Amino acid sequence: MKRFDTHFRSFGAWTARSSTLALGAAIAFAAIAAGCGSAISSAEPFGSTGDTGSGTTGAGGGTTGQGGGTTGQGGAAAAEGVPCDVAAVFASACNSCHGANLSGGAPVRLVTYAELTAPSAIDGKTETERSIARMQAGTMPPGGGAPAGEIATLQAWVDDGFQKGSCGGAGGAGAGGAAPDPFAAAPQCSSGNTWKGGASNDMAPGRACNQCHNQQGEGPVMTIAGTVYPTAHEPNNCYAADVTGAVVEVTGADGQKFDLTVNPSSGNFRSHNSQSIKKPYTAKVKYQGRERIMVAAQSEGDCNLCHTQDGTQGAPGRVLLP
Ligand code: HEC
Ligand code: HEC
Ligand code: HEC
User: Fold this and answer.
1) Which of 292, 146, 283 is nearest to 231 (CA)?
2) Cβ distance 109 to 73 under 8 Å?
């Protein structure tokens, strides 16, 4: 039960993560505001560019831009002073919850030098030492803990007296093997290609499938459906790039596992009637031997309802390729 995040793409610019984690009410509101049209037109598919009303599909669109962040600083800049190997451990295993914007119920940010060396509320030792304890106990990340190598990296930094280091420039997943928080990425449509209309398994990538099918009384209502993207904040209707071979593994409440194929041309995935998936379920994305795991069990199968461009209901952004 470990996250493998060794593969990172370079992101164009650094921004703070989305400022708002809208909760249930916002989703309900967005459902009304989304305004699905009734015709499948190539000019304006379903008459709306956003299920959440947060941003457009145009260049530079979205609310994840620097002006929108409550934390004020971009991910890379904020992590200044933290040595690369240490930043990489937190970025890959922890920052999806303990990031610049907290999610998944995590109580503390573990990104900046100040945050990592601040005293923990539990025992007054630094958050890094507290992190080591939780990783050793197998309770962080939840449900599995971390491999010895990652723990050793953090322990070496503690033993070193928290020497300052850096990761080089933005996008610096370079020689040091450091990995920036992928959820700090700028919004972009990495394929440069958007859905222009027409109903099929590849339709409306990024948007909440069942929500619209229910509203329109058309299209299949699927137990599980969503979209996998190569970066964390891709806009609605953007086809995913480079997801060939990705699989979404869903584990039902009865322990049964189902592998859902990710369509290479859109990033969409879905379950079929023959698959009896019991809720609540957990999910992970598998790709080239790496995986990203959703720890929290969910009863809602419309993944993109929470995994919007910015993320709502605690989700950190898109369902992301590992
Ligand atoms: C899926 C979300 C998630 C991920 C990923 C995650 N955490 Fe947590 N973390 C939580 C939640 C929820 C809590 C509060 C409940 C608890 O303490 O168990 C927490 C609490 C903590 C605390 C504070 C509590 C304490 O004992 O001082 C530390 C430190 C911590 N996590 C470290 C880490 C580290 C280090 C990683 C990565 C190796 C990590 N977490 C990954 C969700 C997460
Ligand atoms: C904005 C509304 C809307 C969204 C969002 C939407 N759909 Fe649809 N979908 C429709 C409508 C309307 C139909 C029925 C059109 C028809 O049968 O001509 C449909 C039909 C379908 C069909 C049946 C196509 C066929 O060949 O009969 C599939 C499969 C499908 N949708 C998959 C999805 C998936 C997967 C998603 C999410 C990634 C999605 N849809 C998102 C409106 C939507
Ligand atoms: C009701 C909201 C909700 C729905 C629906 C939902 N998620 Fe999540 N997802 C979350 C939250 C909250 C987190 C962060 C905490 C965690 O990792 O459990 C998350 C995290 C994740 C992560 C890990 C993030 C990372 O990269 O570290 C993956 C992968 C994921 N979800 C996949 C899925 C898939 C696939 C589906 C649909 C089958 C889905 N989610 C449906 C709320 C949701």
Assistant:
1) 292
2) no
Q: 71: pLDDT confidence band, cut at 50, 70 and 90?
A: very low
Cβ(260)–Cβ(252) below 8 Å: no
Return the C-alpha torsion angle 287, 191, 198, 247, nearest 10: 0
Distances, alpha carbon 140 to alpha carbons 48, 94, 102, in Å: 40, 8, 15
Measured in whole angstroms, the distance separating CA 122 from the mean position of its chain's CA atoms is 28
Would the CB of 314 count as within 6 Å of ligand 3?
Answer: yes
Q: 235 with 277: CB under 8 angstroms?
A: no
Kindly list the protein residues whose Cβ atom lies closer than 6 A to any atom of ligand 1: 93-94, 96-98, 104-108, 120, 122, 127, 130-131, 134-135, 139-142, 146, 295
Do 181 and 18 contact (CB within 8 A), yes or no? no
Residue closest by Cα to atom 31 of ligand 3:
294
Query: Would you state the pLDDT for residue 259?
Result: 97
Of residues 142 and 278, more confidently modeled: 278
Which two structure tokens, joined as six digits, stand for 297?
A: 């069990």
Distances in Å between the Cα of 182 and the Cα atoms of 128, 152, 200 are 21, 23, 30
